[in-house]
Design a protein that fits this description.
It is a single chain. The protein is α+β, with helices and mostly antiparallel strands. It contains 19 helices and 17 strands. Helix 7 links the parallel strand 6 and strand 7. It is globular. About 30% of the residues are buried.
Length: about 525
């Protein structure tokens, strides 16, 4: 019946009413408008192709669906130990990446949680030695973060694993926001006779050998095997696209009444899968929340996945929202910086309430550098220039450009001008009559005096605002967490302006700049 409704609506450019569909497609005559609407809602049953707009017309939205066989999945298993203070410490991570129905990559990491944790729990001697030789948790989680990329995560209680990982990523202003498939949820939908209390319960049902001692390398193989079994079962429900399965898994999904919003389902489906920021506003135009995302479509749409485990604060937020706006960014770093400025400028009520942006940055040894990332402009690059004691500078560069004069000017001014010309941070409250202001800076913001000393010995005061200091914190923390995966030039190890410019040219002119790192000086 859905296909018949879809075929009919495809021919109706302006849409059709519920009564029209009931009479002409369902072949039921005399149904009231109210009954007709309920019949059509039941018939389409949350099919993402159908939209009911503010004019009470049904329409279809052509959306690109991803066949399950073409989607990328990452099967994930974490092993945690309970610490004396009742928190969880991750000691082992295993993951497998599935593309085109084939395992194409594997990840296995052991993590040293520290003597405090190890001495408080019992571990078999051989495993204890492995853990002691493990790597730091921040490095391990960073490796996992880049292994996952944009894949759909699969696990028994996958959201719990994502939350544990995000608690660690939180220190570098990043989060895993990927779509996820929960095997526990799928089990309750596909095999309702099972009440799984662990992954072993599902494995036993399928007669998959289980473990005497839990280890993630074995467990992630069990996760993969159960996933393949469920793919076969899903065919019986005629669910063969990723989008359908993501919605099917949840035990309770309520109908979203878009009539109270200034947008509809087609708006959510049209959001690009790119990094950026989104702004949520009340009907009177007041900005109440600003967020960032490495995938705008997934992040914004997730607010409307009305699942039983959705946080109450999300429900409260949606009761106030009327419009949503978004801006595409070239990179997650650019989105983070834009989000930070908007929050500082407008002080949205819900951002202040949750206090997720007031975190101290963690600095590494890298202080003076140029980061090279994609720009929001198609095919362009964005350069981030960081110099200790100076405000962050950004510059968009067209790939293949011949004229590097503006980039050369910034490089010379920031890194290779005589020492006497550099700005020196005085670390005092602003009293300068010539402040260096930041666009959008709220009045009364704390400022720090920057003094520029000319060769002749004259001085003039400049100031750096708290917003600019915040941007520096974000960039330093972000580069420390991501320096093994992004391209940058460490200007402290490049002896001259010409050498630095040559490295930059090599990056910009290279067709695979965003993948290669062999030019980098570190």
């Amino acid at each position: 019946m859905r296909d018949k409704l879809y075929a009919y609506l495809k021919l109706q450019e302006t849409g059709a009413t519920s009564s029209e569909l009931v009479e002409r497609v369902l072949k039921i005559k005399g149904a009231s408008q109210n009954i007709s609407e309920k019949l059509i809602r039941s018939a389409v049953a949350e099919d993402r192709r159908f939209v009911f707009d503010k004019q009470y017309l049904w329409k279809v939205v052509d959306e690109e669906f991803t066949p399950l066989s073409e989607a990328t999945f990452v099967f994930l298993s974490l092993l945690t130990l309970e610490t004396p203070d009742k928190t969880k410490a991750i000691v082992e991570v295993s993951a497998q990446k599935l593309k085109n129905d084939k395992i194409v990559d594997r990840l296995h990491l052991l993590i040293d949680p520290g003597l405090y944790v190890i001495s408080s729990v019992y571990l078999p001697a051989d495993f204890l030695q492995e853990v002691k030789n493990g790597i730091l948790v921040a490095k391990a989680i960073r490796s996992l973060f880049h292994f996952i990329e944009d894949a759909v995560l699969v696990g028994y209680e996958i959201q719990s694993s994502i939350n544990q990982v995000n608690n660690i990523l939180n220190t570098s202003y990043e989060y895993i926001e990927n779509a996820s498939l929960c095997l526990k949820y799928l089990t309750k939908k596909l095999i309702p006779d099972i009440c799984p209390k662990s992954l072993d319960d599902i494995a036993s049902f399928f007669k998959i050998p289980t473990m005497n001692i839990r280890r993630t390398e074995k467990e992630v193989c069990i996760v993969a095997e159960i996933f393949f079994r469920y793919k076969e079962l899903l065919k019986g429900y005629e669910l063969d696209t990723l989008e359908e399965v993501l919605e099917f898994q949840y035990p309770e999904v309520d109908y979203v009444d878009f009539s109270k919003y200034a947008f509809d389902k087609s708006f959510l489906q049209s959001i690009p899968q790119k990094p950026g920021i989104y702004k949520m506003k009340r009907k009177d135009g007041e900005l109440i929340y600003v967020g960032k995302a490495k995938n705008l479509k997934t992040r914004v749409s997730s607010y409307f996945w009305n699942t039983v485990d959705r946080l109450q604060k999300i429900t409260d937020l949606l009761s106030d929202v009327y419009t949503i706006e978004y801006e595409v960014a070239g990179s997650e770093l650019a989105a983070m910086l834009t989000e930070f400025r908007l929050i500082k400028q407008y002080r949205p009520a819900l951002n202040q309430q949750y206090e997720v942006h007031e975190r101290a940055a963690r600095y590494g040894n890298l202080q003076n550098f140029i980061v090279i990332l994609p720009s929001s402009g198609e095919g362009n690059l964005e350069l981030f220039f960081m110099k200790e004691g100076m405000p962050l500078q950004r510059y968009e560069m067209v790939k293949g450009i011949v004229n590097f004069s503006e980039a050369e000017r910034i490089i010379e001014e920031m890194y290779y001008a005589p020492v006497a010309d550099h700005f020196l941070t005085r670390g005092v409250e602003n009293s300068s009559p010539h402040p260096l202001t930041c666009p959008g800076s709220p009045s009364g913001g704390k400022e720090f005096r920057m003094t520029k000393i000319s060769p002749a010995g004259n001085t003039r005061d400049r100031t750096i605002t708290d917003i600019e200091m915040g941007e520096i914190d974000i960039l330093l923390s972000w580069i420390e967490a991501n320096k093994d995966w992004v391209n940058y030039i460490n200007t402290d190890t490049v002896c001259s302006k010409n050498a630095c410019l040559k490295l930059l040219m090599d990056y910009v002119k290279d067709e695979e700049t965003l993948q290669k790192k062999h030019f980098r000086f570190s």
